[in-house]
Amino acid sequence: MQRYFIDQVKTGDRINIPKDIAHHLVTVLRATVGTEFELVLADHQAYLAKLVSTTPRATAQLVEKLGKDSELPVSVILACGLPKTKEKPELIVQKGTELGASKVVFFEAERSISHWNTQKQTRKISRLQKIADAAAEQSHRNAKPQVEYCASLKQLLADYSATMRLVAWEESAKSGESSRLYQSLSKLHKNDSVLAIFGPEGGLSTAEVSIMEENGIIPVGLGPRILRTETAPLYFLSAVSFITELSGNS
């Protein structure tokens, strides 16, 4: 069933549907009076809704609350070194949204080949946010993740705090370290937050990892295989889901 997010609070059982959503629902999907769909309001509560009018404007009636909350038990911020192609950030945002990320931050790492100037930042973040919004609807999330940009690792460390901060470090995997990720994630409790940092193509430099360790960030391996920059965040989110949602540790 189609799901939409609207930035409105519930003040009654009738909701005026924003024009862009109404266009998609009525014109694209050809919904008619009586068609049911789902609405997520500003408080992240999902409702079963029914279209009750299309003119002079589209209006929906909230039928019932939907009790299911599809969000991860913990808040996950993905911080990704800026990849060199436009397709990789789009993939990370789309699939990261489907897997439950609460925020995706792209930052300029030492080995980042691509660089976003001020004009490019605004345009790219706007496009990536639209991708996140659509993926949140498709995957029936209760919240849309935010996509943001950070000019440097220094700014990232200063601006993004969390209950736990980790960095995916391939040298940890190469040295045979295999349990720190599980040990760290197993310590998380419901409503905790975790910042996970990933390098761009070419990885993070030793100097960057040293700076992170000085700031209390824990290096973790993601298994014995070297993952691409767009694969590592998705592996991490899958591990978070398994440990916090599927293994009874949440």
What does this structure look like?
By secondary structure, this protein is α/β, with parallel strands linked by helices. The protein has 2 domains: 3-65, Ribosomal Protein L25, Chain P; 75-246, SPOUT methyltransferase, trefoil knot domain (Alpha/beta knot, 3-Layer(aba) Sandwich). 34% of the residues lie in helices and 23% in strands. The chain is built from 8 helices and 11 strands. The chain has helices spanning 19-28, 87-98, 118-138, 153-159, 170-174, 180-185, 206-214, 232-246; strands at 3-5, 14-16, 36-40, 46-53, 59-65, 75-81, 103-107, 146-150, 164-168, 193-198, 218-220. The strands form 2 sheets. A 6-stranded parallel beta sheet has the order 8-7-6-10-9-11, sandwiched between helices. A 5-stranded mixed beta sheet has the order 1-3-4-5-2. A hairpin with a 5-residue loop joins β3 and β4 (46-53). The longest helix is centred in the middle third of the chain and has 21 residues, at 118-138. It is elongated and about 65 Å long. It starts with a strand and ends with a helix.
Topology at a glance:
Layout: E1 3-5, E2 14-16, H1 19-28, E3 36-40, E4 46-53, E5 59-65, E6 75-81, H2 87-98, E7 103-107, H3 118-138, E8 146-150, H4 153-159, E9 164-168, H5 170-174, H6 180-185, E10 193-198, H7 206-214, E11 218-220, H8 232-246
Parallel strand pairs: 1-3, 6-7, 6-10, 7-8, 9-10, 9-11
Antiparallel strand pairs: 2-5, 3-4, 4-5
Helix pairs in contact: 2-3
